[in-house]
Specification:
Elements (H helix, E strand, L loop, with lengths): L13 H20 L3 E2 L5 E3 H8 L4 H6 L2 E3 L5 E4 L4 H10 L9 E10 L11 E10 L4 H18 L4 E7 L6 H15 L5 H9 L10 H8 L10 H16 L4 E3 L11 E9 L7 E7 L3 H4 L7 E7 H8 L21 E5 L2 H16 L4 E3 L6 H10 L4 E5 L1 H6 L1 E6 L5 E5 L3 H4 L3
Parallel strand pairs: 1-5, 7-8, 12-13, 12-14
Antiparallel strand pairs: 2-4, 3-4, 5-6, 6-11, 7-9, 9-10, 10-11, 14-15, 15-16
The structure holds zinc ion (ZN) (2 copies).
Amino acid sequence: MQYAVPRGTKDILPADSFVWQKIEAACRKIFALYNYMEIRTPIFESTELFTRSIGKTTDIVGKEMYTFEDRKGRSLTLRPEETAPVVRACLENNLIGPDLLTKLYYIGPMFRYERPQAGRQRQFHQAGVEVFGSNDPLLDAEVIILNLQLLSEIGLKDLEVDINSVGCTKCRPAYRKKLSEYLKDNIKHMCADCQERFINNPLRVLDCKETKCQKYIENAPASSEVLCEECKTHFEKVVGWLDGLMVRYKVNNRLVRGLDYYTKTTFEIVSSKLGAQNAVSGGGRYDGLVEELGGKPTPAVGFAIGLERVIEIMTNDKYQILPAGRQVTNEGRIIIYFATIGEEAKKIGFDMLQKARSRGVSADMDYLGKSLKAQMKVADRAGAQYVYIIGDDEIKKQSAILRNMQTSDQQDMSFDRLFDELKI
Ligand SMILES: [Zn+2]
Ligand SMILES: [Zn+2]
């Protein structure tokens, strides 16, 4: 009996994990540059946290959550996104407050029951940031720039920002009304999901990806037409900052994003090489969420990057972000391999191996009783820079051959000189 991974999940195997490590390292580096600190929350939360924050009528809550009861009958849900858990954690631990700017980042798996396809998994990964405490439009711009700098650090090119304002609790009802009036005449031509959305939350119609709905979505009234003064000024300032910073952006009035908590700015970052519907990252402002989840009114802004999408681009040879053939896996994985022949040599080899490791030098040896030739092959595959070959004669001489695997040079090197000579 063999088992398979659950549908929509993937093993990240050693041949690929180096790409993930590269991305995670870039995230930590760039987040630190902007003074963000990491937060790690549980994989599951109480279901209500998500129904309350993301919105009951969204696709995520309606169709995509992994919800289950624990043994005491509590309803729990595997996190489908990380903003609500971060807000929950901040409130529970008093991390946000007046006169305090709180900048947090996270990297980790999220879960949504969606139809698996390229770049979309049921367990997927996001890296993102959340900033609490300021409604300064410059912060919206900074978050967008951070997002762009991170993606270009990873190697993505030709990035463009799609940006919109979805308004606030003051001006959104007017937009909702305007949109409903427009949809009333057209909804019968749209998909079944949209007809349901029309009744529950007409704004969600704009999220629809069905081809037959697109022309009605394109002609729908834009949220920018009914923004209140405050939202309008905020948006003008955000794009003003982006202009000043020479950021390439496009105002996209259909960009509402699939969650209810967004207010004012929403944005997505697309790689123009990938074409439409290929956002690698998205986010926006959510000035009402902290209060909605029981805290004091606190403005906030954030984004999340879909790491599977980024990986898909990175590993596609078309974009030439990684070296062809991905040989990078083997490069310098270990510095030195101790090849040993015989029991006595194994003992001495192991002593040296541990001495190397205690000096911070990555090293390895054979545990399968392989021939010397086979050990050399293993060392080569591990990307060893050197192999030190120890047998009975070498023990007598207290000296052995040190082979440089790159140049194939060999030299005699005594046991006690080895580490000094290698400067390790
Ligand atoms: Zn407004
Ligand atoms: Zn539709």
